[in-house]
Automatic annotation (TrEMBL):
<dbReference type="InterPro" id="IPR051459">
    <property type="entry name" value="Cytochrome_c-type_DH"/>
</dbReference>
<keyword id="KW-0349">Heme</keyword>
<feature type="domain" description="Cytochrome c">
    <location>
        <begin position="20"/>
        <end position="109"/>
    </location>
</feature>
<protein>
    <recommendedName>
        <fullName>Cytochrome c domain-containing protein</fullName>
    </recommendedName>
</protein>
<keyword id="KW-0408">Iron</keyword>
<dbReference type="InterPro" id="IPR036909">
    <property type="entry name" value="Cyt_c-like_dom_sf"/>
</dbReference>
<dbReference type="InterPro" id="IPR009056">
    <property type="entry name" value="Cyt_c-like_dom"/>
</dbReference>
<dbReference type="GO" id="GO:0020037">
    <property type="term" value="F:heme binding"/>
</dbReference>
<dbReference type="Pfam" id="PF00034">
    <property type="entry name" value="Cytochrom_C"/>
</dbReference>
<dbReference type="GO" id="GO:0009055">
    <property type="term" value="F:electron transfer activity"/>
</dbReference>
<keyword id="KW-0479">Metal-binding</keyword>
<dbReference type="GO" id="GO:0046872">
    <property type="term" value="F:metal ion binding"/>
</dbReference>
């Protein structure tokens, strides 16, 4: 009986992990990003831009790591709307954390953006500033 329960728990854990390959990125997104960009990635009214189906994100994906790390002060246009609210950076996040967030956002909701490697994130972070 005990072995059966253990086998069921291991199976459930395995299935869950297989279905949510960006679980760590999702947790980090919920902690650092969702207050402004929403759990659904659709932003916060006219204050914070959407990350879901964002033309800005599609066209500037190589800048995403720098934006997460350093924030953003400049006005941007996302899906035809101007956003001027500054975004704080998260200097406490590691390269791995940033990669996980990017991969979660790139694959979440209606996004179909390519996966990013840790090497790409490190390269992109070198070009910040």
């Amino acid at each position: 009986m005990r072995n059966s329960i253990l086998l069921i728990l291991v199976s459930i854990t395995f299935i869950y992990c297989q279905n949510n390959i960006y679980a760590q990125g999702e947790r980090l997104y919920q902690t650092y990003c969702s207050n402004c960009h929403g759990l659904d990635g659709n932003g916060l009214k006219n204050l914070y831009p959407p990350l879901n189906n964002s033309d800005y994100l599609k066209e500037n994906n190589e800048k995403f790591a720098c934006i997460i790390l350093n924030g953003l002060e400049e006005e941007i246009v996302v899906n035809g709307k101007k956003y001027m609210m500054p975004m704080e950076g998260f200097k406490n996040l590691t390269d791995v954390d940033i990669t996980n967030i990017i991969n979660y956002v790139n694959s979440a909701w209606d996004n179909k953006l390519p996966e990013t490697s840790i090497q790409e994130v490190k390269k992109n972070l070198e070009s910040c500033n």
